[in-house]
Amino acid sequence: MNLKQRIERLEKRCHPGLAAALTSWYEPLDSNHPALQMSTNDKGQALISPYWSVWFLAGTEAEQKRELELYRANSRYKQPPRETPNLDEVYVEYVNGGCLDTIFCKLSEEEAERTGTRP
After folding, report:
1. Torsion, Cα of 26, 80, 67, 93 (10° steps)
2. What letters, b where the CB count within 10 A reaches 16 and e where it falls short, cover 6-20?
3. Would you give the distance in Å from CA 98 to the centre of its chain?
4. Up-side HSE of residue 57: CA atoms within 13 Å toward CB?
5. 66 Cα distance to chain centroid
6. Does residue 101 sit in helix, strand or coil?
7. pLDDT digits over 78-113, tens only?
8. CA–CA dist 92, 89 (Å, integer)
9. pLDDT tens sequence across 6-50
């Protein structure tokens, strides 16, 4: 095995997925909602199940699609989070290096791109 393959293997072990923010709510969407069959949009966002959505903060379209299918297959994301529901709030979970700072940076970059200003 060459060095590049070894490094890629180690990277996969250290970071087994894409940086993302997952959000959940306690009142489910209709299970026939068309967005549940769609892949990620141009911003890396998609619905996982009637209870969960994901926003990928990195990765190519193909990587996001592959990761989305893994989330959709995971039984954990077919129900609301186990914490006590507070219907006024949304439950957010950051995975694989996703964090609030990354989201603010991404939103700031999108705003600057849209308005033509620098963040």
Report:
1. 80
2. eeeeeeeeeeebbbb
3. 9
4. 21
5. 12
6. helix
7. 988 877 667 667 788 888 877 777 777 877 887 888
8. 9
9. 776 666 565 568 889 998 888 888 989 999 999 999 999 999 999
